[in-house]
């Protein structure tokens, strides 16, 4: 029954099937599900593709929301486009992760790109997204510039010559205890990435939630870890509604005298590059004004960054959460 505190759980969830994700103790977000397209377990993680009422079709891995039709362009344009436009002529790009294909899609919007190597360890996720979320890749996997490899990201990147890639983009799952990616957030892996970058190279990684109350869970630690490897590192954020948080990214340059990425819009550089590459009407989220907003962090987050001392190593990793923090309705089934 209803109470002075609002709806009871029975009233709130009486209609349809629901997916619940526990964000922290005492705080759970719920999404009504209208259809389940796929539900199963790969060799690495639980994988689900469902249709939600608020966000449309969604990819959920290890019971945690990963991407939705309604707001994925906010996330993927934020991850990819600052690095792509910061580089004057990115010809070779490496993507670690990114199984949905949307990161690949954003890279290949740039006609100057000659080769994009995408490596994801979980072929099941890639196939499920190709089958059930085709708007994410939007044909990118069929682009002749794409080289898709299903394998360990670290193993494949190591196989390339030092200095090969102009840009390295990591679109990995969060560093979860028991998840497949946590060692790819460490100094040893970042040092290897730096070696594989060409002169003028740019590195960017998704870095977890980055709001006023949760930036120190992962975002600030990734930032400080990168600072042990790269001479210049910038943190930036965008609000991704389906993630229920401001979301963090960290971007770095190989050289200390590289471009000032946070001020890329200075004297119209960014606006000019967007027009020169013919993407001003293609991009739905990112432009020169949005860029300035993304790199303008709030005072509490700047303070957390300044005070961060943790460094992630293979011997001393940071786990953002556990892979069991999401809770799926038991009776969800294909329909």
Helix content: 25-40%
Radius of gyration using CA atoms only: 20 Å
The biggest beta sheet reads: 7 strands, mixed
Count of alpha and pi helical runs: 10
Order of helices and strands: HEEEEEHEHEHEHEHEHEEHHHE
Task: Provide the spatial order of strands within the biggest beta sheet.
Answer: 8-7-6-9-10-12-11
- The number of distinct β-strands equals 13
Q: What is the rounded distance between the termini? A: 30 Å
- Poorly predicted parts: 322-335
What this model shows, in words?
The protein has 335 residues and is of the alpha/beta class. Helix content is 25%, strand content 30%. It has 10 helices and 13 strands. It has a 7-stranded mixed beta sheet, with helices on both faces. The chain has a 6-stranded antiparallel beta sheet with strand order 5-4-3-2-1-13. Helix 4 links the parallel strand 7 and strand 8. Helix 2 packs parallel to helix 3. It starts with 8 loop residues before the first helix and ends in a 7-residue tail after the last strand.
Provide the descriptors you would attach to this structure in a database record:
six-stranded antiparallel β-sheet; alpha/beta; seven-stranded mixed β-sheet; 30% strand; disordered C terminus
What does this entry show, briefly?
The protein is of the alpha/beta class and 335 residues long. It has helices at 9-12, 72-86, 102-108, 123-132, 153-158, 187-196, 219-227, 269-276, 288-294, 299-307, and strands at 17-24, 27-41, 46-52, 56-61, 64-68, 92-97, 115-120, 146-150, 165-171, 197-209, 232-240, 245-253, 326-328. It contains ten helices and 13 strands.
């Amino acid at each position: 029954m209803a109470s002075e505190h609002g709806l009871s759980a029975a009233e709130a969830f009486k209609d349809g099937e629901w997916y619940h994700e526990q964000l922290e103790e005492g705080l759970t977000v719920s999404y009504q599900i209208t259809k389940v397209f796929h539900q199963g377990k790969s060799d690495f993680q639980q994988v689900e593709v469902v249709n939600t009422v608020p966000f449309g079709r969604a990819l959920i891995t290890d019971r945690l929301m990963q991407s939705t039709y309604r707001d994925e362009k906010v996330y993927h344009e934020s991850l990819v486009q600052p690095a792509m436009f910061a580089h004057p002529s990115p010809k070779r790009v490496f993507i670690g992760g990114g199984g949905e294909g949307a990161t690949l899609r954003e890279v290949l919007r740039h006609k100057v790109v000659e080769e994009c190597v995408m490596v994801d360890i979980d072929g099941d996720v890639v196939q499920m997204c190709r089958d059930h979320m085709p708007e994410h890749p939007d044909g990118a996997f069929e682009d002749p510039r794409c080289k898709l490899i299903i394998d360990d990201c670290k193993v494949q990147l190591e196989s390339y010559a030092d200095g090969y890639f102009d840009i390295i983009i990591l679109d990995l799952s969060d560093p979860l205890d028991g998840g497949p990616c946590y060692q790819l957030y460490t100094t040893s892996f970042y040092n290897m990435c730096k070696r594989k970058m060409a002169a003028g190279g740019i590195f960017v990684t998704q870095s977890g939630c980055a709001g006023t109350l949760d930036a120190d869970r992962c975002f600030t630690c990734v930032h400080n870890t990168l600072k042990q490897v790269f001479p210049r590192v910038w943190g930036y954020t965008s609000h991704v509604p389906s993630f229920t948080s401001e979301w963090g990214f960290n971007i770095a340059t190989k050289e200390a005298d590289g471009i000032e990425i946070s001020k890329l819009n200075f004297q119209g550089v960014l606006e000019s590059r967007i027009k020169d590459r013919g993407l001003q009407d293609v991009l739905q989220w990112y432009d020169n004004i949005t860029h300035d907003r993304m790199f303008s962090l709030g005072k509490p987050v700047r303070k957390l960054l300044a005070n961060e001392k943790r460094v992630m190593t293979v011997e001393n990793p940071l786990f953002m959460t556990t892979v069991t923090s999401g809770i799926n309705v038991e009776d969800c089934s294909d329909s």
